[in-house]
Design a protein that fits this description.
Elements lengths: L2 H13 L8 E7 L6 H4 L9 H7 L1 E7 L7 H10 L3 H4 L5 E4 L4 E4 L8 E2 L18 H8 L6 E5 L2 H8 L5 E6 L4 E5 L8 H8 L2 H6 L54 H16 L9 E7 L1 H9 L4 H26 L3 E6 L8 H6 L5 E2 L4 H12 L5 E5 L2 E4 L1 H6 L4 H12 L5 E6 L10 H9 L9 E5 L3 E2 L13 H4 E2 L1 E5 L5 E8 L3 H9 L18
Parallel strand pairs: 1-9, 1-10, 2-19, 6-7, 6-9, 11-16
Antiparallel strand pairs: 2-17, 2-18, 3-4, 5-8, 7-8, 10-18, 12-13, 13-15, 14-15
Helix pairs in contact: 4-7, 10-12, 11-12
The protein binds zinc ion (ZN).
The site of zinc ion has 5 residues, from helix 11.
């Protein structure tokens, strides 16, 4: 009599079938995360954070950036567009725009206004992005019923992943200590965001200061705490633990960026967004794109082999464990899908490498000298308009007015540059296929080349040589230390396992599109990683 309904309910409880689509997708980008951080610090990760991802998820161990300029804006744009700077237009964090006659910041937009920040906060939007993102495609596929929100301390880390049609993107304004947005998305912050800002969580986090999670002597994966090649964030007297941060509360909100608490702050705001906006509540898939910027600021200052970075990742692991717990509780295990990756990785600090007999240098080719020899030979004074992303932009207006042959001037400059012992190769960006480079490397420069926004001459420095300051380190080259990034999927629809097959950051968007059964972004060149799926 009552056997049938009982049987049905017993069955559904036992099988716990996954829904046809995830209720929520959470994209996690960790700014500057190297692939090896998953393993170098693994022994002291907990069970519920990064180790859970490896245990339950699918790891693509050989994921690379398929273009040369490995920087933040290009990375965020390429992951979410499945495309490269050649097609999505995001050449770098900045580039030179010939029509405007000036440098352009990737997400600048003078046509909008900042909402919720200090007067100093510059207005931002995704206007410079040319293609759709996976988040745009989700909005299009659901008649805009899917909710899409992007969040990061860095404006570009929140804006580019959220795409053109997002409900919102939020970023952190150091002037006010507030999460802000722009009129591109809305005319007023939602009440929950204003309340979060009023709580001044940033000050509470600064008051915690920063000491190591474990006794400092146990950080055997890292170099000594006090090294001359380490930078001093916010002008602290020494680059050593403990860092007194309470002094910045209420005064220097930007100080949070170079601390592990920056990720705690970002994930707290992300949790608030999920709850208040009811993301992952109904059956229409929502998408939260969160990017953790602080590991990049910390990495630039101290380098990958510093105690500061080891401690940052041990703490990030705990923050992610809390975040995953919250998603299990509020959205439900099996109902959410996540992936973790990075916009780029990073080089070791040159001073640290040299100290260990590995060749490295902060390098700068002689721009004044080069310009002087061009002037002597061609009579063109100051031919270089800009130098960005290791590309030289030439002043063609000036050259044309003097009737100077463009190609002849370029090849003269390239010949001069190639005399510099710090330069691996300088070549003509107008004919990349003619460059004397292995095909795989040449392909990356083609993927990063953009006639509208790119320069005329490409400079490749030798491995471990890069433009930078006396302390700290950076990224931006095609070399493996900058271009090998982590990629792990976990949750709804994901099979447990791993592959060593070469995959690319541009494969993420088409893989998500296949899983969600939606159209891939307009400029997609990546391929579906079929192994990820159940
Ligand atoms: Zn960076």
């Amino acid at each position: 009599m009552i056997a049938l309904p009982m049987l049905a309910s017993a069955q559904s409880a036992a099988v716990k079938k996954e829904p046809a689509a995830p209720k929520l997708v959470v994209g996690i980008m960790v700014d500057q995360m190297r692939w090896d951080y998953f393993y170098r610090f693994n022994a002291r990760y907990g069970e519920k954070g990064l180790k859970r991802m490896l245990r339950e998820g699918f790891a693509c161990e050989n994921t690379f950036i398929p273009y040369a300029q490995t920087v933040t804006a290009a990375g965020h744009a390429s992951v979410y567009t499945g495309s490269t700077p050649a097609i999505n237009g995001i050449m770098g964090n900045e580039w030179y725009e010939r029509d405007l006659g000036r440098g352009v910041y990737c997400v600048e937009d003078a046509g909008v206004k900042t909402i919720g920040g200090a007067a100093s906060a510059k207005p931002m939007s995704p206007r410079n992005l040319w293609t759709t993102t996976i988040t745009d495609e989700l909005r299009l596929a659901t008649n805009f019923r899917s909710k899409v929100i992007g969040i990061a301390i860095k404006d570009r880390g929140g804006i580019l992943p959220a795409g053109h049609s997002a409900n919102a993107a939020y970023w952190f304004d150091p002037g006010s200590g507030h999460w802000v947005t722009s009129t591109y998305y809305m005319n007023q912050l939602p009440a929950w965001a204003t309340r979060f800002n009023e709580r001044k969580v940033v000050d509470s986090l600064l008051r915690l200061d920063w000491n190591t999670l474990y006794p400092i002597g146990t950080y055997t994966q890292s170099d000594a705490d006090d090294r001359p090649w380490e930078g001093r964030p916010n002008n602290v007297p020494k680059p050593t633990f403990p860092y007194a941060l309470a002094q910045f509360a209420g005064k220097n909100y930007g100080a949070i960026s170079t601390t592990p608490q920056g990720s705690t702050l970002t994930l707290s705001f992300a949790k608030e967004a999920i709850l208040a906006e009811e993301m992952g509540k109904d059956d229409v898939t929502d998408f939260l794109a969160v990017s953790l910027s602080s590991p990049d600021y910390i990495g630039h200052t101290f380098g990958p082999n510093s105690i500061e970075i080891e401690d940052t990742y041990l703490r990030l692991d705990r923050d992610l464990a809390d975040f995953f717990d919250m998603l299990d509780q509020k959205v439900g295990k099996g109902n959410w899908l996540t992936f973790i990756t990075a916009d780029h990785a990073v080089a070791h600090v040159p001073g640290y490498l040299k100290n260990n007999k590995i060749p490295a240098e902060v390098a700068a080719w002689n721009r004044k000298g080069l310009e002087a020899s061009v002037e002597q030979r061609f009579g063109v004074k100051a031919p270089i308009l800009d130098y960005d992303n290791y590309q030289i932009y030439l002043n063609y207006k000036l050259m044309d007015s003097l009737k100077v042959d463009r190609a002849a001037l370029r090849s003269f400059m390239i010949e001069e540059l190639n005399k510099d012992p710090q330069i691996l190769l300088a070549f003509d960006n107008h004919d990349i296929s003619a460059a004397n480079l292995p095909t795989v490397v040449k392909e990356r420069f083609l993927q990063g080349s953009n006639r509208k926004r790119g320069g005329d001459i490409q400079v490749i420095l030798k491995p471990h040589f890069f433009a930078g300051g006396a302390t700290g380190t950076t990224h931006g080259s095609w070399y493996a230390y900058d271009s090998h990034i982590p990629l792990v999927f976990m949750g709804w629809g994901v099979k447990q396992g791993k592959t060593y097959r070469e995959t690319y950051m541009t494969d993420i968007a088409p893989t998500l599109a296949a899983m969600l059964r939606i159209q891939m972004p307009s400029g997609t060149i990546g391929k579906v990683i079929g192994e990820v799926m159940k």
